[in-house]
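Homework help thread (please don't just give me the answer)

Our assignment gives two proteins as sequence + structure token strings and asks us to describe the second one. The first is just a warm-up. Here they are:
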Amino acid sequence: MDAFYINDIKSIIRNIKTVMDEKRDYLIELDSVMGDGDLGITMTKAFAAASEEAERSEEKLPGKLLIKAGMLMAKAAPSTMGTLMATGFMRGGKAIAETETIGITELAIFFDAFTNGIMERGKSKPGNKTIIDVLYPVTISLQDAVKNNKNLKDGIADAFNAAQKGLEDSKQMKAEYGRAAYYQDASIGKQDGGATVGFFLLEGFYQYMNFRLE
């Protein structure tokens, strides 16, 4: 498979929901260290709403489904991370709204818009120990995959590896944004909940491409 169709995107949304459900308590635990402890609850609510839309939607264009999923996520989980994730899906979906399939080029466009949407809405940038420190290297990895004519499976594998490295690298950063910023130097060495959510997002894509389709 070198392109995702509408049914693949529906399945990926459901797969991300499964990942978030499975990691709910872990996200709560991480967020309890430097946040308010509701991250796991927020993400399960957000992706439950997105998954329900994927189940019932008759939309034919993947990008428009992703926009709608983002809108429903914003309503279901109106917290900081819920709003940021919803913004990412809406911005990313809008960037590929008129395409019928998502290949490696469209996926790179989606994640570029997704990441920039979150940076603009959250007023954050790489290096602040946030979800951006996972999503930004993912975006660069996908853009490199396009330049090097890689197929969708290899491109997603590279992006997943970039997400893993981004998450690991972010542990040594000092939090500069949100509630975690109150901890200053004490945040160094700790794993950020938002960055972890970004990694789980990529895990949902990676698992679908490498396991669900085999």
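The one we have to describe:
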Amino acid sequence: MTTPDFNTTLSVDQTPNAVFNAINNVRGWWSEEIEGSTNKLDDEFTLQYEDIHRCQIKLAEFIPNKKVVWLVMDNYFKFTKDKSEWIGNKISFEISKKDDKTQIRFTQFGLVPEYECYDICQNAWSTYIHDSLRSLITTGKGLPNSKGNPRTADEEKLLAK
């Protein structure tokens, strides 16, 4: 079944446990600018990237080696008129074995083409999942953003404004 929600899939050679641990090391692949805990059910964390993006997330599902779901409690984008985008969205990481690989199916339920942020967000998630998370899983070192250190072309443009 196809849905308009943004999703992407990544396959790696590492175990479901290694993948699960990497996903929950959010500072290691998404942003070093995270406050709070990111590794058990009901944990809450806040991402603040410069004055471009701020969001508060709660871990809504946490099934070791199988699934992690975040609930976006609050969100702010400097670059959108609609300040409600992302609020209430669920961001899901489903982990499964397929042949001899571990597969991650990433979905942001509610991130749809009608969103003002859709192009920037789907480009960013693609970069963070396929480059940074993959690198953290396969080499132990991800490529998260940090203060003054954007990881995507859109972040670079937004910082320059």
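TA reply:
I won't write it for you, but here's a hint about the kind of observation we're looking for: The mean pLDDT is 93.
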